User: Fold these one by one.
Assistant:
Number 1:
Amino acid sequence: MYTKKVMDHFQNPRNMGEIEDASGVGTVGNAKCGDIMRIYLDIEDEIIKDVKFKTFGCGAAVATSSMATELVKGKTVKEAMEVTNKAVMEALDGLPRAKVHCSLLAEEALQAALWDYAKKNGIVIEGLEEPKPFEEHEEEEEEF
Amino acid sequence: MYTKKVMDHFQNPRNMGEIEDASGVGTVGNAKCGDIMRIYLDIEDEIIKDVKFKTFGCGAAVATSSMATELVKGKTVKEAMEVTNKAVMEALDGLPRAKVHCSLLAEEALQAALWDYAKKNGIVIEGLEEPKPFEEHEEEEEEF
Amino acid sequence: MNKKIYLDHAATTPTKIEVVEAMLPYFTEKFGNPSSIYEFSGQNKEAIEESRELVAKAIGANEREIFFTSGGTESDNWAILGIAESYKTKGNHIITTTIEHHAVLHTCEYLEKNGYEVTYLEVDKDGLVNPDDLKDAIKETTILISIMLANNEIGTVQPIEELGAIAKASGVLFHTDAVQGVGHVPIDVNAMHIDLLSISGHKLYGPKGIGALYVRKGIKLKSFIHGGGQEKKRRGGTENVPAIVGFGKAIELAITSMEAESKRQADLRDYLIEQVLEKIPHCRINGHKEYRLPNNANFSFEFIEGESLLIMLDMKDICASSGSACTSGSLDPSHVLLGIGLPHEIAHGSLRISLGDQNTKEEMDYLIESLIVIVARLREMSPLYEDYMKKQAKIER
Amino acid sequence: MNKKIYLDHAATTPTKIEVVEAMLPYFTEKFGNPSSIYEFSGQNKEAIEESRELVAKAIGANEREIFFTSGGTESDNWAILGIAESYKTKGNHIITTTIEHHAVLHTCEYLEKNGYEVTYLEVDKDGLVNPDDLKDAIKETTILISIMLANNEIGTVQPIEELGAIAKASGVLFHTDAVQGVGHVPIDVNAMHIDLLSISGHKLYGPKGIGALYVRKGIKLKSFIHGGGQEKKRRGGTENVPAIVGFGKAIELAITSMEAESKRQADLRDYLIEQVLEKIPHCRINGHKEYRLPNNANFSFEFIEGESLLIMLDMKDICASSGSACTSGSLDPSHVLLGIGLPHEIAHGSLRISLGDQNTKEEMDYLIESLIVIVARLREMSPLYEDYMKKQAKIER
Ligand SMILES: Cc1ncc(COP(=O)(O)O)c(C=O)c1O
Ligand SMILES: Cc1ncc(COP(=O)(O)O)c(C=O)c1O
């Protein structure tokens, strides 16, 4: 079901962990859908010096967050803005159709972390939109 | 599907053939339903001295006519009147449910032959009813 | 002769050894549920998709248009009931023929009891549908035409391409029951304008209990069996992996050998027909002389009845059939033989010989000899023959 | 460990060698169509009837009440759609539960779209139906109650006898999906007042693609698959003889070994549950503690997600499932886990272990060790766990 690359990133996730006093942290997704991603950025002089992630989710969720961190590590903030879900998917040699949303989540997590960094530093990153606020628990009442 | 007795009477039908100038001949059934039986009786002094049959029909039809002739051969007319479809079925160790009508046909053929004998000789056989006239081809129009 | 001479391949075929061998690992080793997530089951998913491709290829379809079912009967039911339901806002009229298999006929009768209108096209004496009749039958409310590709009793092969073109020109969906056709005659769903097509595994040396329905891309078709997400959510139920694998293997083998086998069997068939007609009086062949399955010969012998004939053939180790296997045991003669206009008493005396890939010319000779003896014997026993002979004698005098 | 540790017997079971051996002759030698008239096919008819007796015996039914189908899904569809149609003049209300298999749920949803009313009984936190709820739900128009005997995900076994008695007292027909129950817990259709019961072959070490529906004598049940005269005209389609024979053999073996195997597997299960609950924090067991299938254990591990867990187990050669096999791949957590009131995030972290006759204590130990490592690893990766730990730290400070 998953490509070799996905399995590799799932089994050996790169940059898993957290960064204390990170320049920016972004958390997206919700437990209701079964995916939560958190990305930590350590940015110095507009360069992403370090990046870590934590993910609650399926194999694809783990792999896409791992790959997303790989793709932005050492890059400038501007370059990081170009890491789209498509780029993540391509780097993983593709995802099953039902799992494409994971790559979107990875893109969102990254952008949420960048937003946090921008906000903390009072700067504006071109093209970056404010992420939806993260709610760990579901907002709505259970349907069942 | 058939008992050994049925198969034996089908494979080696007893009294198959015709009797010229028979004392009585009865033909019943119709080709539409796929069964026609004809029984020939040679009766002398109220005793069935010889009996033959011809049958167009399935294995059970052949076997029941064969058995019916066996059961009446050498018997008196009165005794022959007691050869019912049940007697024929029992003598054959039973018939599949879908084939019970064959044994009825055998009884009818026998009674039709007796009726013919009675008519030719102007006598009345107690309990014997006039058989339905035999029509080789269907009376009604084809439905198809 | 000592071994069985099996001449009833239209009823069912033996599963080929290669097919059984292809199936075996999926019972005991690769037994996983294809819907499971672990790798051990992934191989089963792949095996299913390989089979789907093989089935698709056999009829010129795309693999995404193939849905596995439990057999030809389910495929027919699904196609007809599914379209009836999915297109009920468009209309309630269905066209079929009088000589379809019961899987189609009884399904149509069921629909008739539920507010649908069904036209049963008659066929000519050879079993052919007249394309003009089809044209005339189509109306505003017609949502489906279901005409079998090849008849299971008399072997007549319909002008499917022409019928399909008519359906297409009228914008009506076209289903064909190709259970007897696949593996015997070339089929291309696109060239023939077929929208839905039923196949069964056990008629082409595959296992029983497996079949497929081809559904042209874009056609709405309601699920018939509701359940899990299998078959793209269109047919619930844990996939019958071994049978699907066997089905794929069987159809691949059938298509590969089709040209040569069809020719070989048609030659045997022609020899059989010629000999029987020559050597047995009061006998006719049913079905079309030319547009007929390569492996089918259907005879009617006057004055005798089919079941007796079958039992006597069985005593000579010959397995054959009289009308469809499904109808034997019933009292009515086959609706197909009545449908081509045979009178009841002739229909009762029918014999279907359906050849397979193991049959030989020697077996045909043995069959012919056996038939000569048996038919004569049964006629000797037949009051109808007696009457006929007496009539003839009178005429000659 | 090198060989696969298969712990997903609720998804499907390997076909037993004895079962495959019983089936084999019916593919290549005794391949005849049971509806055919010749002796060669007679043996197949007999084989089918022998299997029918074995299936009947397993549930205390009469063999004339057993109808073969293509699997559990078809049996469920037939029971529900058939009764809905046959009794529609009596009423249009059906009662079922929120935790049924999709074969039942999706069929009920289909009926809802077609003028029927369906009540979905909720279950308690252990998955049990409250008999009083059932009593309250029955009304004038109720024609069918369909409640599964044992749940495929959490293993909860319903008080079927009590529920059946309520149905009977109300004069409502009672169907139970016993696909997961047969061969694991004793079943008697009479003592339990069951009118219709679904079984599937591949859940009890028989082949896939075969199942049965028990229909109590006297119950009107419309055909679901229309076709030839098979199964007393109630289910068309050439009989899947090899699968029927295998099914019979499998159910016979299952019933013979049931008492001992259930005990053995329940012991393993209890050991597993005890160890996991003891050794892994933030973990709960789903389903009823006592009224549960002997081979089922269903855990929820907080802060982690099921698919990752399954893949990591798979990497250790352990085959297990998270919710039903059918639902994996979808985004929603299992309706059963939601049905017993689990919040979404807990439901996502569920693991179903279903034992089989080959599993050993050593395998349980290996599973436990693997789980300890994997759960810890996934929690290490989980932002939810991070947040939880930080909260705890704050509280402790
Ligand atoms: C023309 C035709 N359609 C449908 C069927 C039904 O196929 P199955 O027996 O696989 O359900 C058959 C054979 O029985 C057939 O000959
Ligand atoms: C409770 C239950 N009902 C029905 C089914 C469907 O059975 P099958 O896959 O044989 O169609 C299953 C298994 O998938 C099940 O667990």
Number 2:
Amino acid sequence: MSITSSELLAAVASRELAGANTVFAGIGLPTLAVSLAQLTVAPEVEIVYESGVCGAHPAQLPETIADAVLITDSEAVLPMTALFGYVLQGARIDVGFLGAAQIDRFGNLNSSVIGDWHAPKVRLPGSGGAMEVMANSGEVFVVMRRHDPRSFTAELDFCTSPGPDRALADGIRPRGKGVTRVITDLGILARDGVGEELRLVATHPGVTVDEVRAATGWDLRVDSELTEIAPPTGDELRMLREDVDPARVYLR
Amino acid sequence: MSITSSELLAAVASRELAGANTVFAGIGLPTLAVSLAQLTVAPEVEIVYESGVCGAHPAQLPETIADAVLITDSEAVLPMTALFGYVLQGARIDVGFLGAAQIDRFGNLNSSVIGDWHAPKVRLPGSGGAMEVMANSGEVFVVMRRHDPRSFTAELDFCTSPGPDRALADGIRPRGKGVTRVITDLGILARDGVGEELRLVATHPGVTVDEVRAATGWDLRVDSELTEIAPPTGDELRMLREDVDPARVYLR
Amino acid sequence: MPQPDKTTSMREAIAEFVTDGATVSLEGFTHLIPTAAGHEIIRQGRRDLTIARMTADVVTDQLIAGDCVSRLISSFVGNSTAGSLGELRRRVEAGALAFEEYSHYGMICRYLAGAQRLPFYPLRSYAGSDVPAVNPSIRKVTSPYPAPDGGEEQIYVVPPLNPDVTIVQAQRADRSGNTQIWGLTGIQAEAVYAARKAIVVVEEVVADEVIRSDPNRTVIPAHAVDAVVACPRGAHPAFVQGYYDRDGAFYREWSQISADPQRLRGWLDEWVRGTADHAAYVAKLGEERWAELAVGEAWSEPVNYGRRL
Amino acid sequence: MPQPDKTTSMREAIAEFVTDGATVSLEGFTHLIPTAAGHEIIRQGRRDLTIARMTADVVTDQLIAGDCVSRLISSFVGNSTAGSLGELRRRVEAGALAFEEYSHYGMICRYLAGAQRLPFYPLRSYAGSDVPAVNPSIRKVTSPYPAPDGGEEQIYVVPPLNPDVTIVQAQRADRSGNTQIWGLTGIQAEAVYAARKAIVVVEEVVADEVIRSDPNRTVIPAHAVDAVVACPRGAHPAFVQGYYDRDGAFYREWSQISADPQRLRGWLDEWVRGTADHAAYVAKLGEERWAELAVGEAWSEPVNYGRRL
């Protein structure tokens, strides 16, 4: 079986979770990555879901972050005030996973509108808890299936979820580093924290730097120690396919 | 059997509860009064306890506001954040019952210290939730067994739980009327709200106005329509003795 | 202490408590969405409502398409993971629906401020976001305490949200409104306490003894509830933990239905305006569909509350 | 996903997490008071602690008499309804114990701010009270929204409380710290989340399946807990819902014991320093006394969490 894009992204993302204790993740690629990390680099890492579920032991693969199968047999279901107030804002999350319609060079995210907010070309869902995940996690990983200049943009149409640089410019000291990893079908962009731009630090085998730069809407910097991403190992693939998502709900 | 002071005070206090829906009450005289009111003037009145218990159906008479018998068979046990935040501060309480070591002419209360706070002659328990009951109830009833000038004082040694007049002087708009009834072994003092002093509105049979004024540490005003309090009726006594507190735990 | 009986029909509850122009909070996070109540609002033709709902999803789209809504207060406007809300998007993109945008915690804090009668509630969101620029209700306060670095600290705040009426769905309640929820409890208690009036829609009205056997399970106490409506399967297509599962197919279908204004209107005419009440809607879905949504058993271990001997 | 095993002995938990000079929160409102943990702190001779406790009662008096405490943060300093705390009163009246006075909701809001990492928490208490004059931590903020009358609105705020360690008592937990409480749940969850470290002392460590059969009962999740200590009857003289009743006689006796400094010292030497651990204290109380505190049964009705078929 050839390696799917989901398998690739999940395997690569999972390796970045070494050392994390608590991860805030949505359903899909992020949960695949965390589940694989639990079997490999981070055996004790715990997923906390936006619905308030902690320590889920689902009998079936969940379809949403609030799926009934996540609740039954879980260790705790927190009230929403506790989840957002004590867990997220209380700085209990090491790594948050987010997606977005647009990302800029500092890892600021837009999930609200394409076009002008007051007369949008496309009205998107908005923040949900994304703003809180960005403001309160130790760091944020972004997984973007499609790496193109419309999504990786020099200027966001609207900033829904700001990273720490924008927070500081607004006079408020942020907790975390903001986006530190962006994992795409072309490679990995990274930054270490406040004041830094995203740099290309790794590419998938066969992807050139020029391809990534052409797919990025700003003048993308390239790390001096650019590496090639090791493709998913046999073990990683086996665990993803046999243990994590045997029904291939998200590995499609 | 002669009428005890507790029976007298409970019966008198119960009559004042006509029209109330939710009462915040401690164990002892206040609960006796509310229980009697449920049998007489306010059949649907509900007691909310500081412990968060709502709709208690205790199999035995409780000894504290947090007694295990209040919890078993109750309708709801609220988290403390909900009890103080949503119920009390949320203005869901019509009548709160409070006691105090000292009360002044505007119904401000001291339950913190006798003497100077920094080097107290007597350190008392402090506010507990009294400050919140005062600030957030529609009105407050105070039941004081002993009516004497040390407790009914022209100047509090310390104001723990301020009424609305002091709140306004502090630049903050109060919710409720503060203390509207003070029920003692001599009679009833009353005020209707902001800006008013407590007036003597009723005396127990055989008690003179001069006796009450002598027992009060300030120049007590007397209402123009001073009445005599009707002693507990036979029905009230029977219900108190047979239904509310048959073991005479609090009617002693 | 006779408990007041607050049970009533959905029709009467909506007629009494949801008036034209009212601010109506409908909460329930994926779980326990008060769909049946939303449908009854459409049937009764309410107009000019302000709807407050963290996750504005299918029922919100239906209320908007039913011409009930002039203003929306929300933190997520999407059809769960299944696609888009056609009518909501069309109207917002056309400037035909006023939209107050928040983040989830912003909404939660508005309910917290509302329930606690606070003038504002502080939160560590919005710093550097464009949302405050399009939502002037989101403001800043300077802390009266020094920041960790000794300097001045600022924080964003949101104002209280005090709906005219909050409607929530729950598993069960007694006749006086003591309401028990398990699984995701969401923001329902806060939304109820923040409101002037509250309607609780339940799968079952149960005997007092059931509620009183487990008072910690009561998320909303009777004193905060004005009407109790028994409405089995009232959350469809959302799920009710232990009662029925989420109708994923419906959510996916909704992206298609709502994409086409005419098809959407037809759907409302057939399924909402064309059904007399929620029982008729449930029957119209058919037992086969309900059988697919049936769930098995996973019972909680009882706990001992104890009794004085 | 192997769950980390955090079970340890009381001795080790106190030795590791309660250090001289630390700020220690001990919460539990009448119910579930962490008495056994307090006794172990006395046994280990900790000094210069700041104790945070809403209702500073018998265990606080004992800690003060044990010379463990230099500062107290509290909203009620009294022996429940049974009288006075002799040592606490003596020291406060002599100026020998620093005391930060709050109201109950002031304490709750300090924990709420601490748990939520907020610079302050607003509340509608303290207006016109003398407490802010003796507690400069209680300050005012001006709301950025107009008051109902259109004018400016001010409100008091309290600062966050972030204990170095919070210790709470509970009915049961699994080995990784998922902690279930029923009956009065108090402010325990907030006090734990506000703290840098948390010790949970439980009547029973139970199998994972027990906890997972009822996840809504988990008041404190494992990720917030650093140590789990099994310590049956650890709340005496307080009660544990469903396990044992309040020892009212002990509370009444305490007013006598603590009134006399010498008698109090003798009590500590005999009952705390003279017992090796809480099991010895429990044994010393004797089975007759425990039989008086035994409770009967009142089981909750189970609820169905459901299972996908």
